[in-house]
Design goal:
The protein has about 170 residues and is of the alpha+beta class. Helix content is about 45%, strand content about 25%. It has 5 helices and 4 strands; from the N terminus they run H-H-H-E-H-E-E-H-E. Strands 2-3-1-4 form a 4-stranded antiparallel sheet. The longest helix has 18 residues. The mean pLDDT is about 90.
Length: about 170
C-alpha cells in the first residue's frame, strides 16, 4: 500500500497528541523493527514538513499519486472461477489496446480481502499521468469486453484515484 508511511505518521501523531492531555505528563512508546523509517523518525519529532518532503519525493520516484492517476477496476461475483476468468479477459483486452505501453497495468490479482459477503473480488489497476486519457482507456476496454462477453452475475466497480491507497 503506497500510503502506509502516511498512515503510520498519522497514527503516531494522533496517539502522541492524546498522551498527557491533562495535568499528567504522558509518554509514547513506539515498538518497531524499523526505527529508522522516515515516517517514524519524523512523527517522533513531530516534523510534518520533513515528512511531507520525504514522502512526496518517494511518491514521485515510485510513480504514485499525486504524480500519476490510478484507476482500480474491481470485479466481483459469487463464483470465484467466473470472477477470475472475467478479470483475466479484461486484462487481455487492456493489454491489447495498450500496444504502445502508454498505460501501466497491474494485475490481475485478488483484492486484499478476496471474499466479502459471499462475493469473490479480483482487481486490475491501470496508471497514467492524464486522468481523462486513463478514464477513456479503461471505459473503452470495458465496453469492448462487454460487447463480446456475457457477464452473468459479475459486478464491475470502478475507482479513480482510490483514497485507501490499495493498488
Amino acid at each position: 500500500i503506497y500510503s502506509s508511511s502516511e498512515n503510520t505518521f498519522q497514527l503516531i501523531n494522533q496517539v502522541s497528541g492524546r498522551a498527557g492531555r491533562a495535568k499528567t505528563k504522558g509518554n509514547v512508546v513506539i515498538q518497531t523493527y524499523n526505527p529508522e523509517n522516515y515516517s517514524i523518525v519524523f512523527a517522533a519529532n513531530n516534523d510534518y514538513d520533513g515528512f511531507y518532503r520525504e514522502e512526496i519525493k518517494y511518491r514521485s520516484q515510485m510513480g504514485y499519486l499525486p504524480f500519476v492517476n490510478a484507476f482500480r477496476i474491481m470485479i466481483e461475483g459469487r463464483k470465484q472461477s467466473e470472477v477470475i476468468n472475467y478479470t483475466r479477459k479484461l486484462y487481455s483486452v487492456m493489454q491489447y489496446y495498450n500496444k504502445n505501453n502508454k498505460f501501466s497495468l497491474y494485475g490481475p490479482m485478488p483484492c486484499s480481502i478476496e471474499k466479502l459477503k459471499d462475493n469473490f473480488r479480483w482487481q486490475i489497476t491501470a496508471k497514467f499521468t492524464v486522468e481523462e486519457n486513463l478514464r477513456n482507456y479503461v471505459l473503452y476496454c470495458l465496453e469492448k469486453l462487454r460487447s463480446r462477453e456475457k457477464s452473468n452475475g459479475i459486478i464491475v466497480n470502478l475507482h479513480m484515484n482510490p483514497l485507501n491507497g490499495q493498488f
